[in-house]
Amino acid sequence: MLLADRDRLLTALEELETDNALDKVQLEDYSTQRKALLQEGAAVLKQLDELEGKTRAERVAVEDDDLEAMIASRRRERQEKQDGTCHACGKPVQASDKFCPSCGRPSS
Ligand SMILES: [Zn+2]
Q1: What confidence tens digit (pLDDT) does each residue in 19-62 have?
Q2: In angstroms, rounded to a whole number, what is the distance separating the alpha carbons of residues 25 and 33?
Q3: What is the CA(106)–ligand 1 centre distance, in A?
Q4: Looking at CB atoms within 10 Å, which of 23, 45, 64, 108 has the fewest?
Q5: What is the CA(80)–ligand 1 centre distance, in A?
């Protein structure tokens, strides 16, 4: 369940950043929500590390950087797969998508 929690938090962070990039969210809300998600994420990562039996020193090294790195690598992976953006709503569309996952319009 911890892995699912971690993925859920990463997805929430990504959505928050997307909303922020599109100016959909107030800057103040963005900062507050992001901080809360990163804190929750760090707690989940710590628990995961404890399950894996890492030493205390390694555990202390688990900070926001890890989450940021995960988000960055997920974003890179997605961009590599991504074909472009929906011409109707501007959300990312994958090369394999016939229809926009966000608005349902044909993607080409
Ligand atoms: Zn769309």
Answers
A1: 988 888 888 999 999 999 999 999 998 888 888 776 655 555 55
A2: 10
A3: 8
A4: 23
A5: 19
How many A from CA of 107 to the centre of ligand 1? 7
What residue ranges do the domains of the chain occupy? 2-62
Give phi and psi for 94, each to the nearest 5.
-80, 155
Crossing angle of helices 2-21 and 27-51, in 10° steps, is: 160
CA 79 to ligand 1 centroid distance, Å: 17
11 confidence band (pLDDT: 50, 70, 90): very high
Question: Tokens 């990504």 belong to which residue?
Answer: 14
Please give the distance, rounded to the nearest whole angstrom, from the Cα atom of residue 12 to the centre of ligand 1: 20
Do 93 and 108 contact (CB within 8 A), yes or no? no
Place of tokens 């628990």: 47
